[in-house]
């Protein structure tokens, strides 16, 4: 089991991590750009210790699935090359009406014989028989959490693991992915052999990989070698060229819903990775001057409006963070749409909509990281964002995203973090909420101890020392 080396932690950090026995269950956030400078500087503040512990735990959990490779799939794409990424359009279903002897067709015959029709929001489970998309989601989360865990603990194991997964997916001769999405979200049926523009969304979490690489690069990790950096840059240059020139990629850039928003996430992040900050800012400016201007209400028409509002908001916030990182002197948080709305306004409206109203109760938590992100940027002087999070997730300061959604303070009587918050560290983004919780009875540390209380917590310290 991976753990931070004891000597890398201050006694206060070590004891607090041992005492906070509970942590948030692992989730894969829709998307986010984590400022690598904030992670490398390490000035997190004691009020984030619960979130730090969660990240270290999630790093261990996600690592268990690696390494991942695009070649690990049962079927080759039409090119015959398993190095080409492959996925099937998830909302498309076979309609074998009128097809002779349809009941006798094998599953593979159905894929090529029956016409496929779209059922928006209705996921076809056999689309995951080829799971390159699941593998990429897994590697993106594992890279993100392991590199942040490296920033927290300075345990080389986290950095080495992340670097090795990147090398396997993108670089090694036997396992690398070709830098294209020519066969992403293929719509099966007679004569359909190429990918579609919606498939560009499959790699939306490239932003998480970029955050991880920047953390390794900026922290001068020995795991991130010059050869690895050069090889990754070469791959990225080819993929950026594909994103900027391929017809289906351009179609995705023009998509007015979340697909377009996430397209700009990818392209801007990759340009930042290449050191092209002006190019990255040009990408985000293009988004905020075009799609963003009329985009906020669009997802309400979808079959899962609560989910898609939260989903697109996550991409909007990511574009804003990428824009700010590319040019610290010109943030876009107050840019307004043609209706005069900001990202904050979009979030405030989304908070008024019940997930249950559209039968989406299982998606309710998808909005929470967006709430924390908005609070960290715009402030929370009235405590409404903390109250919203507390109502839905009483221990939200234990969530991983709480670490990078700073500054974030909470009022007395609401959920608080594992230790006295004190002063929030600066993350490079401004907020105006400075109220902190002082009531020790509501301190999250007292609520996150396991059922055996302090005795078990103290034993945990000795167990940690002995193992």
TrEMBL record:
Alginate lyase domain: residues covered: 73-354
GO molecular function: lyase activity
Keywords noted in UniProt: Lyase, Signal
Domain of life from the UniProt record: Eukaryota
Keyword Transcription regulation attributed: no
Name of protein: Alginate lyase domain-containing protein
Low complexity bias: start-end ranges: 417-433
SUPFAM superfamilies listed in its UniProt record: Chondroitin AC/alginate lyase (SSF48230)
InterPro entries named in the record: Alginate_lyase_dom (IPR008397), Chondroitin_lyas (IPR008929)
Pfam families xrefs: Alginate_lyase
Cleavable signal peptide: 1-24
Region: Disordered, residue numbers: 415-446
GO cellular component: periplasmic space
């Amino acid at each position: 089991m991976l753990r931070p080396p004891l000597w890398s932690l201050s006694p206060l950090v070590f004891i607090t991590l041992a005492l906070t026995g509970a942590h948030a269950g692992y989730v894969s956030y829709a998307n986010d750009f984590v400022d690598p400078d904030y992670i490398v500087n390490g000035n997190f503040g004691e009020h984030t210790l619960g979130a730090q512990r969660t990240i270290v735990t999630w790093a261990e959990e996600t690592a268990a699935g690696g390494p991942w490779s695009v070649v690990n799939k049962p079927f080759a794409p039409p090119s015959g090359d398993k190095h080409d990424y492959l996925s099937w359009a998830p909302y498309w279903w076979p309609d074998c009406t009128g097809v002779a002897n349809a009941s006798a067709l094998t599953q593979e015959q159905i894929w090529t014989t029956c016409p496929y029709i779209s059922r928006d929001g209705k996921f076809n489970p056999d689309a995951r028989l080829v799971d390159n998309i699941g593998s990429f989601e897994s590697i993106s989360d594992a890279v993100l959490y392991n590199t942040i865990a490296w920033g927290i603990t300075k345990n080389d194991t986290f950095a080495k693991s992340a670097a090795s997964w990147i090398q396997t997916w993108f670089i090694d001769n036997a396992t690398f992915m070709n830098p294209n999405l020519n066969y992403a979200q293929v719509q099966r049926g007679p004569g359909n052999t190429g990918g579609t523009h919606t498939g560009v969304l499959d790699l939306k979490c490239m932003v998480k990989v970029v955050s991880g690489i920047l953390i390794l690069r900026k922290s001068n990790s020995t795991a991130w070698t010059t050869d690895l950096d050069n090889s990754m840059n070469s791959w990225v240059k080819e993929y950026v060229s594909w994103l900027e020139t391929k017809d289906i990629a351009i179609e995705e850039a023009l998509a007015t819903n979340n697909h377009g928003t996430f397209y700009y996430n990818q392209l801007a992040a990759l340009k930042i990775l290449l050191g092209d900050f002006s190019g990255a800012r040009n990408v985000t400016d293009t988004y905020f001057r075009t799609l963003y201007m009329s985009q906020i209400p669009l997802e309400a028409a979808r079959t899962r409006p609560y989910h898609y509002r939260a989903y697109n908001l996550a991409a909007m916030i990511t574009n804003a963070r990428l824009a700010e990182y590319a040019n610290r002197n010109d943030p876009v948080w107050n840019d307004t749409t043609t209706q005069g709305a900001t990202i904050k306004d979009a979030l405030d409206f989304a908070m008024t909509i019940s997930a249950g109203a559209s039968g989406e109760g299982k998606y309710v938590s998808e909005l929470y990281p967006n709430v924390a992100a908005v609070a960290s940027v715009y402030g929370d002087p009235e405590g409404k964002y903390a109250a919203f999070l507390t109502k839905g997730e009483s221990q939200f300061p234990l969530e991983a995203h709480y670490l990078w959604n700073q500054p974030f303070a909470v009022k007395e009587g609401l959920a608080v973090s594992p230790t006295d918050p004190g002063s929030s560290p600066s993350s490079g983004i401004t907020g105006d909420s400075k109220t902190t919780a002082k009531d020790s009875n509501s301190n999250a540390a007292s609520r996150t101890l396991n059922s055996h209380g302090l005795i078990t917590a103290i034993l945990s310290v000795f167990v940690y020392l002995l193992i």
